[in-house]
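[job 4471] stage=fold_predict status=RUNNING
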Amino acid sequence: MTSPRILIVDDEADLRELLEITLVKMGLDIDSASDLATARNYLKQHEYALVLTDMRLPDGLGIELVQEITAQYKNTPVAVITAFGSADNAVVALKAGAFDYLSKPVGLEQLRVMVRSALRISQTDEQPSAKVAAPPALRLMGQSEAMQALRAQIARLARSMAPVSISGESGSGKELAARDIHVQSGRSDKPFVAVNCGAIPEALMEAEFFGYRKGAFTGAVDDRDGFFQAANGGTLLLDEVADLPLAMQVKLLRAIQERRVRKVGATVEEPVDVRIISATHQNLLDCVGRGTFRQDLYYRLNVIELNLPPLRERLDDIALLAQAILARLDAGQVRLAPAALDALLDYSFPGNVRELENILERALAFANDGVIEVTDLVLKAAHTPKVVLAPEVTELTATPVESKAIVQDAPVLTAINDIPGSLPDHLDEVEREIIRRALSKTQFNRTQAAELLGISFRQLRYRMQRLDINAPE
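[job 4471] inference complete, writing structure tokens
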């Protein structure tokens, strides 16, 4: 078996020699070039597991080589060497398709880590049969054009080390997208760590992210790793990153740029190899404009943006998603009635896929004979135009008789233009109808009805008394 081959492109002889010695000790074959012309000739002759190029060369710029390799040698990762402090050059290279970057002076340990990551990608590319036999289990579902384009983009992003910023409405699947990027990357055998930045108290953030030493503060009885160390070699998802306080943003920026972290109470930094993916439902650029998010951190995280479409823009996926959700909920042979599926297709899903899951989970409690009907869905009236139209406005969609039957069969739904004269009375009527149906389904067994509704027996008894619901005589 031949050793992987690496191409080094740099006009500094001393740096080339240092890189060659380091990589030869890793058991790799090395070719070196001092300019673009020599590098191009090498690329025509050999296949490389990695190309490492300086950004400034005698006959051009390294970014040109990045673009050529990305276009002509799609299976070859290319990384760039940038001058110290040239973060902008690194971002430009990553956007152009670079796998990763190194800053001068080059840290040898960081170099080894990057090369090992590149080799994992190259080895995956060389074994397509293994890929076919065991494809990664992806979490984002759907066959709509929007989802197919999204999955293709995720597959491309998985090959890079570039930071990815995932945006999308709440409930659209941002964490699932991050996990799909990770599972298709060369880091799939390493940890994936998801952190909700809005759920960590500000006083604990530094310790949670970077870890701490024993005795660093009251209660630190042992050394502990942080999120960066836990994700070492893998992927770190910063969910709801816009919620980070400004003080923590400064520390996070340094950790991302230097790829080193210092535990609370420690005197030295330690290297970490982590790919950063961030996600938020907010507009980060607006946050920058308001001064709540640092512009330099924004540009560092937002190298590549991945936007998730809301569910209302991929209605073709609803039937498939509903089927998968019902199967996951162990619903057996429970299915959606055609009218119920039509109602879901007419719904705008402000809460996206997460809301669809909640709707179906609730509907299972009310479904009879293994079929989920329209009334079992209990959709919000303001978002269900075709199901709840009043008789006088249904000439184009249904006869007055049909519409009246729908309204009578589902008293919990009201016409779009109807505003109840008393909101408390209307909500009481909705609650009364749901409780009656749960009691009917359980032959008025209040214990079972309470379980169906997800409340305690005492809560159900109180609500029955308040709403004047009595057992049939």
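[job 4471] summary: DSSP finds 21 helices and 16 strands in the chain.
[job 4471] exit 0
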